Amino acid sequence: MIKLLSQNKYLILRRITQSGILLLFIGGNYWGWNILKGDLSTANFFDLFHLSDPYMVIQTFAAGYILANDVLLGTLIILLFYTFIGGRSFCSWVCPMNIVTDVAVRIRKLLKLYQDDIKVPINRNFRYWILGLSIVVSAFAGIAAFELISPVSMLHRGLIYGMGFGWAAISVVFFFDIFVMQNGWCGYVCPLGGFYSLINRFSLFKVKHNHETCTACNKCLIVCPEKQVLLPYINKISIKIKGMECSNCGRCVDVCEDNALCFSLNNYKK
Amino acid sequence: MKKKDKVATRRDILKTLLKGGGYLGIGGLTWGAYLNEAKSEPMILRPPAAIDEEEFVKACVKCGTCVEACPYDTLRLGTPGDTKPVGMPYFVPREIACEMCPDIPCVPVCPSGALDINKVQTFDEKKQEKVLDINKAQMGVAIIDNESCIAFWGIQCDICYRACPLIDEAIKLEYTQNERTGKHAFLRPVVDNAVCTGCGLCENACVTEKASIRVLPRTLATGKAGDHYIKGWDKEDEKRMKEKEGEEQQEKVSDKALEYLNGDWEDLIDD
Question: Is B62 at the interface with chain A, CB within 8 A?
Fold first, then answer.
């Protein structure tokens, strides 16, 4: 039992964080809790200040509207926070879509649908193209482009305020991840994750690989949702993983039985 | 998988660039077309103090704090499938109307500027400060269908008049004789467009199967007289004419068509 817990330490911590934050938002709407009111786009934190999604603010700016100071300050706070703890920590520690796509990966494995890397129709940089395109489209259409179609905000907002037909968009992501591509949404398409990848570099926390104890069992590579950040180093060199798409999910640390992977502080000198 | 050692030629690079551009173009076009369609919903009633619809869809960050603040569950967020822009607040008066709270809880909580508190504030002379005034809200205008409104038939019904929070200001009753019977009166409701806030309590209260008094967004329901028409008896409105006259005189200086004609006539006379 203890072994099972320690083997899934970060997974359990992540699930607690994700559902805890979600619960605070839901409580904010239904039971009048005052901790987090709003949603992942903009939230009121303890009635003290706001927290705002920087990607949303950039799209709105491109659409031709400068948001009020409350939101701009909230964006600054979020930007600083995620620069510090790693941009893509949002993806695996906060974003509710992560639970959906992780379940999809589980089912994919149960159905023995293995990724054949050669046949993947789009590459990992696709999200950055969507990211750029969303800014251009926002400017032309005069409205924040991704915010209107984002399955992530449909899911999160849906859970807080009511889903409507939002479940359709969420199931598209779910089935895409099962039957089309493993980690297809989070690892290839989602421009929000793409945006957070851009500020991931200066994260305080990095996964550290120790090549000496590694036995090349490849378990980490099987579970990693962003294999390209691990692939060049595992069982080759000891290094702190610097890849910008690493979401600090800690799954590789969980599954490693050789103590070859652990979290460590970033060494900014390198 | 190892990449093959192959030097990309200029032709290869150009081809890849144009191919990528093509994909992006098609994607962007579809995306943009969808957005343009999705954001232009004219039949939508926004919370009090909402800025112009075109700006509103840009400014709203879809956080839903106004919905949380609304004590009557009047406001709801657009969800996929209800043909309203997703995530933005609106209300349907026939289901739940705006109750016109004097403290307007939905407006001050807006962090984005989509709900502009200045639009529901007046200057209080006594307190020497701005105070909230929900009666300044302009969410829409109530329009009466005089075919289905039973008060226009001669049946006594003044429920919209009584439901109106601005009774005798936004909705008045007009008394006329019912000539069909000769001894009864028509009590017809009349809406004053300048006063009506569009709260929809009248639409909510209306007894006909489908409401005969309905709130429409102001842009749909109101016209514009234009600058040609001035109320000569209204000093305020006359100012508008004077401003316009100033503008027109400036325009006439460059009225070249007329000069040209006059010049021609002078030439003819000389001959």
Answer: yes
**Which class in CATH covers the domain with range B53-136?**
alpha beta
Counting one residue from A and one from B, how many pairs have CB atoms under 8 Å apart?
Answer: 134
Are A179 and A227 in a shared domain? no
Instruction: Let me know whether A173 and A96 are in one domain.
Output: yes
Supply the pLDDT for residue B255.
54
pTM equals 0.84
- A87 and A150 belong to one structural domain: yes
Phi/psi at A165 (5° precision): -90, 10
φ, ψ at A267 (rounded to 5°)? -100, 105
Å from A149 to nearest chain B CA? 8
- DSSP structural state of residue B50: B
Tell whether B63 is within 8 A of chain A (Cβ).
yes
End residue of a domain, out of A166, A198, A230: A198
- Per the CB < 8 Å rule, is B61 touching A153? no
Give the pLDDT confidence score for residue B262 in this predicted structure. 59
Listed by start position, the domains of chain B span: 53-136, 141-219
Provide the token pair at B52. 């112009």
Contact A143/B at CB under 8 A: yes
Q: How does pLDDT run across A84-125, given as a tens digit for each residue?
A: 888 899 999 999 999 999 999 999 888 877 765 556 677 888
Interface of A with B in 8-37 (CB under 8 A): 28-29, 37
Q: Nearest CA of chain A to the CA of B88: how many Å? A: 10
* Beta-carbon count within 10 A of A124 CB: 17
Q: What pLDDT digit, counting tens, does each position of B202-221 carry? A: 999 999 999 999 999 998 98
Number of separate domains in chain A = 2
Mean pLDDT lowest for which of A246-255, B82-91, B152-161, B226-235?
B226-235
